[in-house]
């Protein structure tokens, strides 16, 4: 199938909306001679450095104490302070190992900056966990040189943190009154504890270097320690916000999770099939990507971190199913999603960002909507990044990833309110 570089006027209307076309006369193929390229200066001005930062960041509906975030910052800073930065060849002769530790220290510093600039407390919490992990990697590696630190000592600390996580997980109680808020908090706690007690992520290749093995296990130990501490803080803060007589809602959450999974199973036979074209264009990639996301997730509660995580994940999958159906219906109706001009790109981008805002405004619970919209915003941010890299004059076929990102992000955002309403109704009636 040859790559298509144009779209019918009818197809374009389906993508950007009739309102976006009003008063426009610059769309290629509608007036005058159709161009085969787009000049970069005609495109939306997107900064490459900040393009990958999604406009909607993850959150959790519970207050995270600033003192707790400060403790994580202090932990990172104290770890970095043990390193004689910048590391030189006299400190570590091996250039590759020296680069590994320096890069980790730089990454930790960057994550500290990310935490300061985060739009939500939870995004700051995530950035600080990454900062701690990277700082511990660098500090543990250097400690093998400075103090003779050995891997078994670090692995022992890791095992202790894992045991703490397992104990906390076994005793975790699903208390709450507002069912949606409680589900969102418990889902974050479940996910953190699942990551903490899961199998180690230390790659076997590190075992070839004693120093890098210590560094890798140091990172893993710090990750588990931070995850358990974060889960405990979220749970403590949430419980403290509830009346003393608040009971458990685990049965209700499990019931909603089971019904959502059942609904997803019932919808799967009607999903559009995997594309079979020899060459995939935007249309094929859109269908395949959304279909894969719709099918990706736990089939049973026992396959997941816990029932609350299933509820959140099922909401995401239902949004992908609806987005896929919306995209596929327009493919059947109009036959394509390609662009012809910079005006098309501007319209696609504007429609995508509008959809994000509308999804949060029209959803019955913005907190639940945000768990899906964050992914939609990530897709749009990826399209922005692709757009920011275009220089000079580019052929229309160069905009495939841009088009796909904006359309899939918009479709997912559009599907969010209805998916959230379904989940909320099940939680309230289950």
Report strand order across the widest sheet. Answer: 1-2
Beta-strand percentage range: under 5%
Share of helix, binned? 55-70%
Based on CA atoms alone, the radius of gyration comes out at 24 Å
How many strand elements? 2
Number of domains: 2
* Regions with little confidence, pLDDT below 50 for 5+ residues: 1-33
How would a crystallographer describe the biggest sheet?
2 strands, antiparallel
Number of discrete helical segments: 14
Distance between the termini: 49 Å
Structural class: mainly alpha
Determine the mean pLDDT.
Answer: 90
Shape: globular
**Topology as a string of helices (H) and strands (E):** HHEHHHHHHHHHHHEH
Describe the structure.
The chain has helices spanning 9-16, 18-21, 66-81, 95-117, 121-146, 151-171, 179-197, 210-240, 250-267, 282-295, 307-334, 342-362, 366-388, 400-429, and strands spanning 37-39, 393-395. The protein is built from 14 helices and two strands. Helix 6 (151-171) runs antiparallel to helix 7 and helix 9 crosses helix 14. It folds into two domains: 9-49 and 249-429, no CATH class; 66-240, no CATH class. The longest helix is centred in the middle third of the chain and has 31 residues, at 210-240.
